[in-house]
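Follow-up to my earlier ticket, as requested here are the two runs.
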Amino acid sequence: MLKKLFAFALTLMAIHSFAQGPVISAKDLANELKTNKNLVILDVNPADVYAKQHIQGAINLFFKELYQPNAVEGKLRPANELAEILGKKGISNTAKIVVYENESNKHNNRVWWILKSLGAADVWTLHVDAKAFATAHLAMNSVPVTAKPVTFTVTDSPYKLLTMEDVKNLPKGTLLLDGREKEEFEGVDAAKKSKGHIPGAVWMNYREVLTPTGAFKTKDEIIAAAAKFGATPEKPIVVYCNSGVKASTLFVGLKEIAGFQKVQYYGGSYADWASNPENQIVQ
């Protein structure tokens, strides 16, 4: 009887711990590492950042390795190439995977989405916070990790990448959210990467779903923030940014945490849209 009660208590703790969508805390990760020897921690920082310090046991896969070289910024490699890269790194589609990066809490969400789109079922995203890491006693070191190659099998997934043609033919009533900086949206950014935005888009900076430290807000906080931009849980929504990175954070916040069921992701984003000179861009 005591064993059954203990198991039930553990189940309740797990449900409570992982209630914030696909986000795992440093404390929960530290506990998971004690019991799950097959857990894959994926560090998507550049190699030089990884070499200085990373979570003990983490595998390094710089997020840009998943992009097509000499192509539109952020354009993903074909699914079979992505699967081959992941498999060689020791990452399978059946593993429990935790993705993180050191600074912006953006590229981890992008890689989370990529993994989900390939059919990986058990994927989590971790917000890096020095104070939380210290409290959780999460071990860090600079020892590189090379895992044994495995097979990553691409399977069908509900996480679909919208194409340029999809965006051109969005159903009436769909809210197109631009998650970039205001200067990019208006086409006046100093870097000159943007001449404006996709016609009909509404600006909602991706930070609207984050706290000042870069962690995700709560469900209620995100719903309140999104309402200011006309985004409600029942409305069809498409998110985009410059190359799909910031939009992935909007996607996780709105769909996975706040429970907006009709959120779709234009991963090619502005870079893809602007690559066709026939497409209109407005300021």
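Run two:
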Amino acid sequence: MRARRSLAAAVAAVVAVAAMLVAGCGGGGPADSVRLGLFLNVTHGPALIGLHQELAKGLAGLPVEEQVFASGPEEVSALLGGSLDAGYLGPGPYVLAESRAPGRLRLLAGVVTGGQAMVAREGSGIRTVADLAGKRVAVPSHGNTQDLTLRLLLEESGLRASDQGGEVEVVPVKNPALGEALKQDVVDAVLAPAPYGEKLIGEGIAVPVPGIDRQIARWRIPATILVATEEFARANPEATAALVQANATAVERARRDRSAVARRFNERLSESTGKEIDEGVLLASLRAMEPTTEIAPGAMARLVRAAEISGYSGGPVAPAALGPRPG
């Protein structure tokens, strides 16, 4: 029980501190730029190609300043702390922010649905959620979308995470380190955003767990959503509307031409790390997700439930906050 309380407190601290920061900021006048956050993940493909075209043109006369983050909780902290105006991120951290700092963020649109998969060490015996009992499962960070999705999977099968007194140990592992964690037997399975699961399969480090993947796919949980701070959206309605339209155009381009997304992702990855991911692996991961500005009914409510059962939630989330509010 102590472990559960301390973990929930650690997740809550990021949101709570940032909320206090923004509460004391004041201001809220017209901006002179749009500070936009994103991840270097293929699930953020529309953002990556959009920054190369639509977003590069500026939004209602405001230039776009890109900021790259490693995790959703970090990006939420920047949004609530006042150093970011808008961002592409997973829905899990957004839900946690709404539970602890309600009304500070505005959900503008969906971006990508799908894009998360479970893989396991060959010989681990993991084929269904029930097989996770007694196992260690990696997620990118506590409180992110994969963590919350895993909690939903466990609850549906009558299991719980070890920090809740249950049978499954949830281990935070950064995406680039997932392969080593599997090879060194630090974890038995991984629930990761694309393209990392597909990459581990392509490298022969892991095998897919199709039973669990099909279960996740049925829920149609978004991989990526677009949000802005309520303060920015109210003070800059024209730029916010331009951001929503630019996102819609980029999402449609990503839907029509997955190869363009793969190429742009590899260009950015090479610029950042000097490495690339096999294009076949990227295309396989892109085929398993759907670029769309729509959010499936009930998908966000599932994540609210996950926040509650994990102990991360700070309070109720208004139903109006679970759907896009572009204007």
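The only thing I checked on run two: The longest helix spans residues 2-23. Let me know what else you need.
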